[in-house]
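Sequence in, structure out. Go.
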Amino acid sequence: MKVKFSLRFAMLLGLASIILLTAAVPFPGRGVSFATTEPVDLVRLTVENRTTGYMYMWLKGPQSYYFVIKPESTSHFTIEPGSYRQQVRVCGDTASKSVVIKTHTRMIMPMCGTNAKNATSGGGAVYDLSNLIKIVRITVDNESDTNLFTILTGPATYVFTVNEDDENVYTIAKGKYQVRYWACGESATKTWKAYADAKLKLDCPK
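Output:
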C-alpha cells in the first residue's frame, strides 16, 4: 500500500508541476508586458491647401509624419504634440523651419504669391504658410526678335519659354537666381534677384 501511495503521490506532484509550468508560458502570438506607458493626448492638425497644385508636408519630432494635401482642399490629421522640424513643398518651392504644435492647430497655404488675410483661429493656433513658402509674382520680358528659352536656378529651378517680343507673368520662389537663356541663336547667363513684381528683361545675347 505504501508503494502504491508513494507512486500515486509522485504522479500527482509531477502533473501539478507540468500544469504550473505550462501556465507560465505565453501562448503563441501573445506578448508579455511588464510595464505600461501613459497614453498621449493627440492634437488635431488642419491643413488648408488653397493652391491649384498638390502640397506635401513632413513633420519630424516626437513622431514622424508625411502628409499629402490635394489642390483646393482641407485635410484633418491627429498628431502627437511637441516640437517638430517642418518641411513644406508647394508652389514650386520647398522650405523648412521649426514649429511647436501643442494645441489644435490650423495651417493655411494661400494661393501662390498671396497671403492668408484675416484668418481666424477658431479656438486654436493658426499658421500662414506663405511666411514659409515665399512666392512672388515676376514678369519675364522677351525683348528679342525670336522665341526665348530660359532656365532659372536658385531657391528652386524653373524653365520658361516666352514668345518673340512678348512677356509672361509667373509666380516663383523669392530669392537670388542664376539665369541662363537662349535667343537669337545664342546663349548667355546672368544673375538676377526675384522679388515682388520684379521684371526680368532678356534680349539677344551680346
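Check: The first strand starts at residue 43 and ends at 49. The chain has two domains: 43-131, 135-202.
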